[in-house]
Amino acid sequence: MNIQAQEILTAITEKLSDLGNCPSYGTKKQQDDWATEGSGVLSDMRNMIDRLQSLIAQHPHKAKKAQQAIAEIESKKKPLLAKVSEIMYGA
Question: How far apart are the C-alpha atoms of 40 and 63, rounded to whole Å?
């Protein structure tokens, strides 16, 4: 379970790295494209959190690493969600 939690965390880190930062001075289309990709990453994050929670439910006595991974994913998710929302919805 620890290995799975680490693999999930690594996968999310790679997805965020591939996405990169929003092009601050890019065109509206570039920002929209980034936000669309960012939405996909957010969806992946939700799916990975669900997988981790499922692992925790199956192995509650080995849950520490998975809980740490969830906390780390959530902390990475908040700024991405805020930026994607800002671009897509002007929020």
Answer: 27
Measure Cα distances from 16 to 55, 62, 81 in Å: 23, 27, 12
Cα distance between residue 27 and residue 41, in whole Å: 21
> Average pLDDT for consecutive 10-residue bins of the chain (91 residues)?
88 95 89 96 96 93 92 96 92 57
For 18, the token pair is 């591939």
pTM score, two decimals?
Answer: 0.89
Question: What values do phi and psi take at 68, rounded to 5?
Answer: -65, -40
Question: b/e string for 26-51 if b means 16 or more Cβ within 10 A?
Answer: eeeeebeebbebbbebbebbeebbeb
